[in-house]
């Protein structure tokens, strides 16, 4: 089968890969590109563990075809920290124990960052509905929601 | 008990594995690859019940890209008439669950597996395996399975002398229930049903296995690398010494990863092909073919005198085992009445097989089912007596010295404290609005001790490396670091905690039974105490004084007093630097079968609001009160309480397995298997009550499982309080709520 | 193994050419939130995947000279939500489109995909039906339009002719005093497929309904336009009797099935409940316009 050549940008760096036309972006990220931070929890867009940013929009990478990445900008959890410096959300999740097993955490963090970029002062209800596509089975969401609200408050204070 | 200043124990430190997990670097099972790796895929049964007449794998084997095919004949056969136990698991059933042998027993039952150059080729080749089935009638529900004319799953099972789907019975008796009921002024008896629910871990099962020169290395996410090694050894015939099981980070388990599915299959494929084989389940496979917990059918009868003293309790609990025996009847029958001091108890559990996937452990296995029935009946007893439901519980609460029907006499326990805290809490006093209701329920779980191993080493630069043998499923590394730092009197950040594989740490039983911190804290404490003794000896050697004259204080060796001599204190760094000259590397390990895990108790308060036109129930407020022994890391203890409450709310309101008429799961996805999402829940308040376990150096009690015991009844009692109508079946989904409301 | 191709043409003509050439073996990719799930489940295995998101007309949001809106079939829910004026004119359509899946799904899922998927439970469809949206289709034989309610043919089936592609939705201009609303019943608060969905579009003059349309989803093989319900509302001041008559019309229109998501009894009852609630929201909004 003829593979397709795709040129894209991942976490700010130009990247090229070969894929089959029906490969999902998640397959490519986790496979050839070695970016295993995005997880496959369902493969049907119901759990959000594979969340990435595509041209600044939050999407499930399991619901995106790899060839669609051509000429686009992709951001993954691996690009969230600046070198050794964690993003305020990452730091707050650690401080407030907003993760247990951690499998949903990359997706939850990507989604939370997307929320705060659009809405720096969300209500609890807004956080809960924004994150409704990110399943977490360990925490009951309590500490996740608190960490997002707390980070938002701190980022507003720092801004 | 050690004298500790509690600088670190009880503090909310940042978990050692945290940065890896928030940056996407933590390596879970499916994140691992190997050079030359190929892919395995399982062929699953399209029938709920059928005899396997023949399996022809030749076309699949000839398919381009296919490297090997396995069926049940490639794994060790365990004859049906001879039990081989590993812990609570019988290998006769485990082997047949991993690959069907005589029959397929549920839709999705593995029949064969293929290894090929890609996952897609392996999946295609599965379709080329020709299986001839003789389809048999199937049975899904308990009430059907126990009928005299039900299709029998296993002809070797009999009950009361007849072929039966009842695979086992367990009974607890205390006193004389008939005499007890005779004394009662109020007797209430009700029947209940619950549906099977899945643990719902977000990470599907997966395994990567390499076999070279007969030696296997297994990377998989499980609740016990030693369980993986032992079961794979039993099923493949490879000795344990030739299997190294490496615990990947685990993406949730809740009991469901205390058994194996893919590991032995991938091992045999890897052995046959000489290449590393990776297998990853889809969500669909997880929902169809891995173990949910049992659905149930129960009857509970409770009698009390006018003054609110419970005089007798009787329970009968039928639990689905799935296709092969082994449902958690012990948890249902044993825990249902355990929170109370009841003189006359008769509690019976029946293990029922039917054509569903084999159940697996789920957080306090069986106990939520027992508590649901018992705590709902208690609520009605309180109503009949005109008593506050928490006061009724308080009046009858088990205390130190109470004998439980399942055997033990309770030592120091904090159950009363949880009820008193609930009564005193603002939540319990807050007025409710229209169509709102409040429910309460309590719960008990056994908790477990068992085998654990630890090694504590001092690094050459004077820091600490701790290794234990339990996969860290929810922050246990942070708690172990807290304890080690506390005992050594050093900064928490100087302690690293690793989970060893089966080759690098001694045998450690499962991450399960709420046992990890209880057991590992014991062996880590003893190891650290040995290290401290060595550190004092080394200081004594440097100072040329008697080791007895050295004490360890605030992270330093000091002379014990004026008489010992005057020496400047030696730090861990100082002593480590001189380790070679004073006797060599410093470290100690302890391996032990830990004892003294005492039961856990909790009381939950739940507020709901019901939309009576649509039948929707929403949880408005939820508060858990739990005796946590000692919260070594409070955030992760709260996390256990909150997570359990959320799972219980799902069980009560929206989660269930649905089957079509062919016995196929009809909702095998996160879309239709409705676990609570973020917008479904309120904040979940967790009130920790610390009544230290006197048998543990830090006072630890297991905290992980009891949070799932009370919620089903707490939610059900809240709905009853809101509507003035009772529900005896879960989940209380919108169509069922309307059915009951409109049935008026 | 079949050869699979992915193409992303930049013109509609090119897309239609490729679609026709594939003779039924092709699938249109807009947001992909249904297509990729179906491909993964093996329900469909297209030979060619035609991504229409590089076609300007399929992804644009335009205000028509008459004062209506034209939405490209592949516009994502998130993009529609960000439009400065669409949500003011058509809050019901917007909330319906924005109820399709999670935030992540909203980044991709489109009203065109939702309609072409042919599910009677698609959230945007009852709202589009209530809005009186007209769809533009283009195929080898040119362009044509049809009312959105004529588009579905049954569960998973549409009235697209062979080789035809759904290009856009056109929503009419809004008279003063108009607004719309959409409500659905799902067991959870998010992430579910509608058990019943109701779209209502109203125009009020001094408190009297002068125009109404009602779309009803998930209660029949296709989304329904319930004209009897609209008739019951028109001319009324939304008195209880009119509301009850409209609710009864919705219940009478239901031809639901018992399935894993809801029972016949439940769906029928809920259709009436939701009609009343949706009308109340639409009327409240219309009163402000």
TrEMBL record, chain A:
<keyword id="KW-0411">Iron-sulfur</keyword>
<keyword id="KW-0001">2Fe-2S</keyword>
<dbReference type="Pfam" id="PF01799">
    <property type="entry name" value="Fer2_2"/>
</dbReference>
<dbReference type="InterPro" id="IPR001041">
    <property type="entry name" value="2Fe-2S_ferredoxin-type"/>
</dbReference>
<protein>
    <submittedName>
        <fullName>(2Fe-2S)-binding protein</fullName>
    </submittedName>
</protein>
<keyword id="KW-0408">Iron</keyword>
<dbReference type="InterPro" id="IPR002888">
    <property type="entry name" value="2Fe-2S-bd"/>
</dbReference>
<dbReference type="InterPro" id="IPR012675">
    <property type="entry name" value="Beta-grasp_dom_sf"/>
</dbReference>
<dbReference type="Pfam" id="PF00111">
    <property type="entry name" value="Fer2"/>
</dbReference>
<dbReference type="InterPro" id="IPR036010">
    <property type="entry name" value="2Fe-2S_ferredoxin-like_sf"/>
</dbReference>
<dbReference type="InterPro" id="IPR036884">
    <property type="entry name" value="2Fe-2S-bd_dom_sf"/>
</dbReference>
<dbReference type="InterPro" id="IPR006058">
    <property type="entry name" value="2Fe2S_fd_BS"/>
</dbReference>
<keyword id="KW-0560">Oxidoreductase</keyword>
<feature type="domain" description="2Fe-2S ferredoxin-type">
    <location>
        <begin position="4"/>
        <end position="80"/>
    </location>
</feature>
<keyword id="KW-0479">Metal-binding</keyword>
<dbReference type="InterPro" id="IPR051452">
    <property type="entry name" value="Diverse_Oxidoreductases"/>
</dbReference>
From TrEMBL, chain B:
<dbReference type="InterPro" id="IPR037165">
    <property type="entry name" value="AldOxase/xan_DH_Mopterin-bd_sf"/>
</dbReference>
<dbReference type="InterPro" id="IPR008274">
    <property type="entry name" value="AldOxase/xan_DH_MoCoBD1"/>
</dbReference>
<feature type="domain" description="Aldehyde oxidase/xanthine dehydrogenase a/b hammerhead">
    <location>
        <begin position="23"/>
        <end position="137"/>
    </location>
</feature>
<dbReference type="InterPro" id="IPR036856">
    <property type="entry name" value="Ald_Oxase/Xan_DH_a/b_sf"/>
</dbReference>
<protein>
    <submittedName>
        <fullName>Xanthine dehydrogenase family protein molybdopterin-binding subunit</fullName>
    </submittedName>
</protein>
<dbReference type="InterPro" id="IPR016208">
    <property type="entry name" value="Ald_Oxase/xanthine_DH-like"/>
</dbReference>
<keyword id="KW-0560">Oxidoreductase</keyword>
<keyword id="KW-0500">Molybdenum</keyword>
<dbReference type="InterPro" id="IPR000674">
    <property type="entry name" value="Ald_Oxase/Xan_DH_a/b"/>
</dbReference>
<dbReference type="Pfam" id="PF20256">
    <property type="entry name" value="MoCoBD_2"/>
</dbReference>
<dbReference type="InterPro" id="IPR046867">
    <property type="entry name" value="AldOxase/xan_DH_MoCoBD2"/>
</dbReference>
<dbReference type="Pfam" id="PF01315">
    <property type="entry name" value="Ald_Xan_dh_C"/>
</dbReference>
<dbReference type="Pfam" id="PF02738">
    <property type="entry name" value="MoCoBD_1"/>
</dbReference>
């Amino acid at each position: 089968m003829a593979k397709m050549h795709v040129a894209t940008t991942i976490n700010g760096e130009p990247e090229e890969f070969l894929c089959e036309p029906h490969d999902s972006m998640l397959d490519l990220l986790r496979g050839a590109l070695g970016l295993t931070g995005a997880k496959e929890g369902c493969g049907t867009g119901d759990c959000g563990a594979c969340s990435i940013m595509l041209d600044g929009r939050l999407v499930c990478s399991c619901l995106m075809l790899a060839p669609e990445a051509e000429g686009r900008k992709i951001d993954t959890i691996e690009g969230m920290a600046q070198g050794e410096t964690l993003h305020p959300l990452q730091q707050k999740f650690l401080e407030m124990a907003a993760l247990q097993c951690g499998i949903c955490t990359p997706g939850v963090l990507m989604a939370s960052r997307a929320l705060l970029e659009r809405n720096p002062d969300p209500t609890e209800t807004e956080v809960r509905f924004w994150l409704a596509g990110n399943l977490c089975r360990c925490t009951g969401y309590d500490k996740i929601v608190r960490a997002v609200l707390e980070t938002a408050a701190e980022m507003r204070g720092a801004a | 008990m050690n004298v500790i200043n509690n600088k670190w124990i009880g503090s909310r430190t940042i978990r050692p594995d945290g940065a890896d997990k928030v940056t996407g670097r933590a390596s879970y099972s499916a994140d691992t690859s190997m050079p030359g790796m190929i892919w395995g895929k399982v062929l699953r049964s399209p029938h709920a019940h059928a005899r396997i007449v023949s399996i022809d794998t030749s076309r699949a084997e000839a398919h381009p890209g296919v490297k090997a095919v396995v069926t049940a004949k490639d794994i060790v056969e365990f004859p049906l008439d001879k039990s081989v136990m590993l812990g609570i698991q019988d290998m006769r059933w485990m082997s047949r669950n991993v690959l069907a042998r005589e029959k397929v027993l549920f839709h999705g039952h593995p029949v064969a597996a293929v290894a090929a150059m890609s996952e897609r080729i392996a999946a295609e080749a599965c379709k080329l395996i020709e299986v001839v089935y003789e389809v048999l009638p199937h049975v899904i529900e308990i009430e059907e399975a126990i009928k005299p004319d039900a299709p029998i799953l296993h002809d070797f099972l009999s009950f009361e002398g007849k072929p039966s789907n009842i695979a086992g019975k367990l009974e607890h008796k205390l006193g004389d229930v008939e005499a007890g009921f005779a004394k009662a002024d109020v007797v209430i008896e009700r029947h209940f049903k619950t549906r099977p629910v899945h643990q719902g871990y977000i990470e599907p099962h997966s395994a990567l296995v390499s076999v070279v020169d007969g030696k296997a290395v297994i990377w998989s996410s499980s609740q016990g690398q030693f369980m993986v090694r032992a079961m794979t050894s039993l099923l493949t015939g490879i000795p344990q010494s030739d299997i190294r099981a490496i615990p990947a980070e685990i993406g949730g388990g809740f009991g469901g990863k205390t058994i194996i599915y893919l590991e032995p299959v991938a091992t045999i494929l890897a052995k046959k092909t000489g290449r590393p084989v990776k297998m990853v389940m889809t969500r669909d496979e997880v929902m169809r073919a891995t173990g949910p917990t049992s659905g149930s059918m129960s009857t509970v009868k409770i009698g009390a005198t006018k003054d609110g003293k419970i005089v007798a309790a009787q329970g009968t609990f039928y639990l689905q085992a799935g296709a092969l025996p082994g449902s958690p009847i012990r948890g249902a029958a044993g825990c249902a009445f355990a929170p109370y001091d009841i003189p006359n108890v008769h509690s019976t559990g029946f293990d029922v097989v039917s054509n569903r996937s084999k159940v697996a452990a789920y957080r306090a296995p069986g106990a939520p089912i027992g508590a649901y029935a018992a705590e709902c009946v208690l609520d009605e007893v309180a109503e009949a007596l005109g008593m506050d439901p928490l006061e009724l519980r308080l009046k009858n609460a088990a205390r130190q010295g109470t004998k439980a029907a399942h055997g033990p006499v309770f030592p120091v326990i904090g159950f009363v404290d949880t009820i008193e805290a609930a009564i005193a809490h603002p939540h319990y006093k807050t007025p409710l609005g229209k169509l709102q209701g409040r429910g309460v329920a309590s719960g008990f779980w056994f908790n477990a001790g068992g085998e654990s191993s630890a090694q504590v080493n001092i690094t050459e630069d004077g820091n600490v490396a701790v290794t234990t043998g339990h996969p860290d499923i929810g922050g246990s590394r942070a708690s172990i670091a807290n304890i080690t730092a506390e005992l050594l009197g050093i900064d928490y950040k100087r302690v690293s905690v690793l989970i060893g594989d089966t080759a690098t740490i001694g045998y450690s039983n499962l991450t399960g039974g709420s046992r990890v911190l209880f057991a590992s804290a014991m062996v880590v404490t003893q190891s650290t105490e040995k290290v401290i003794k060595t550190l004092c000896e080394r200081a004594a050697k440097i100072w040329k004084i008697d080791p007895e004259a050295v004490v360890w204080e605030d992270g330093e060796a000091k002379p014990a007093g004026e008489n010992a001599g005057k020496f400047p204190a030696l730090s861990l760094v100082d002593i480590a630097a001189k380790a070679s000259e004073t006797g060599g590397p410093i470290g100690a390990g302890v391996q032990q079968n830990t004892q003294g895990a005492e039961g856990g108790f909790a009381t939950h308060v739940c507020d709901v609001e019901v939309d009576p036109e649509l039948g929707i129930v929403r949880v408005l407020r939820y508060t858990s009160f739990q005796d946590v022994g000692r919260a070594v890391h409070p955030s992760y203890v709260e996390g256990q309480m909150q997570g359990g409450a959320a799972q219980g709310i799902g069980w009560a309101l929206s989660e269930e397995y649905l089957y079509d008429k062919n016995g196929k799961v009809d909702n095998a996805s996160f879309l239709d298997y409705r676990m609570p999402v973020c917008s479904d829940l309120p904040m979940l308040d967790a009130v920790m009550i610390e009544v230290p376990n006197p048998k543990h150096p830090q006072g630890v009690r297991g905290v992980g499982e009891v949070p799932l015991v009370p919620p089903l009844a707490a939610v059900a009692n809240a709905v009853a309080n809101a509507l003035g109508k009772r529900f005896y079946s879960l989940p209380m989904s919108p169509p069922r709520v309307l059915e009951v409301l409109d049935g008026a | 193994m079949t050869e699979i191709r992915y193409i992303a043409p930049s013109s509609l003509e090119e897309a239609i050419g490729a679609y026709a050439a594939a003779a039924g073996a092709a699938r249109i990719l807009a947001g992909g939130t249904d297509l990729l799930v179906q491909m993964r489940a093996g329900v469909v295995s297209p030979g060619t995947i035609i991504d229409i998101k590089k076609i300007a007309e399929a992804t644009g949001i335009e205000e028509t000279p008459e004062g209506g809106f034209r939405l490209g079939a592949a516009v994502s829910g998130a993009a529609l939500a960000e439009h400065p004026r669409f949500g003011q004119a058509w809050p019901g359509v917007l909330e319906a489109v924005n109820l399709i899946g999670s935030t992540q799904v909203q980044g991709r899922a489109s009203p065109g995909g939702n309609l072409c998927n042919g599910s009677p439970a698609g959230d945007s469809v009852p709202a589009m039906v209530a809005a009186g949206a007209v769809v533009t289709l283009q195929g080898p034989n040119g362009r044509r339009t049809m009312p959105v309610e004529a588009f579905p043919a049954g569960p998973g089936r549409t009235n697209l002719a062979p080789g035809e592609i759904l290009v856009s939705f056109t929503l009419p201009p809004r008279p003063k005093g108009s607004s719309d609303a959409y409500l659905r019943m799902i067991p959870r608060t998010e992430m579910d497929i509608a058990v019943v969905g109701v779209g209502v579009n109203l125009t009020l003059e001094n408190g009297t309904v002068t125009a109404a349309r009602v779309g009803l989803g998930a209660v029949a093989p296709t989304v329904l336009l319930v004209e009897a319900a609209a008739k019951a509302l028109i001319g009324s001041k939304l008195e209880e009797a009119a509301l009850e008559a409209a609710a009864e019309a919705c219940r009478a229109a239901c031809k639901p099935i018992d399935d894993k998501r809801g029972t016949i009894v439940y769906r029928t009852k809920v259709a009436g409940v939701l009609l009343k609630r949706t009308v109340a929201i639409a009327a409240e909004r219309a009163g402000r316009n």
